[in-house]
Specification:
Elements: H1 2-25, H2 29-66
Length: 91
């Protein structure tokens, strides 16, 4: 007898799960999987953009704090102390 009870409970739970799915998604089950994939792709693009922005921000901050270019030269501070010097092309 306990076997029949568990079987009945299992069938009722399966029926409820199917009804819930039909209520939420209707006949568009294929669209649901496409929508889920589009959401995951969009989330991936957003995460990639945040990571790229973080890398650019980190590079900017370290460039300003350290004061050197990645190629070994030093960065000239751009203040309001006159115009920048431009090498003359005349001899």
């Amino acid at each position: 007898m306990p076997y029949l009870d568990s079987q009945l409970l299992e069938s009722v739970s399966e029926r409820r799960r199917r009804l819930r799915g039909a209520l939420l998604f209707g006949a568009q089950r294929q669209r649901r999987s496409v929508d889920e994939r589009v959401g995951k792709v969009f989330a991936g693009v957003v995460i990639a953009a945040v990571v790229c922005a973080g890398c650019v921000g980190w590079s900017f901050v370290t460039h300003r704090v350290v004061g050197k270019t990645p190629y070994g030269g030093s960065v000239q501070p751009s203040g309001g102390s006159g115009s920048p010097s431009v090498p003359s092309l005349t001899r």
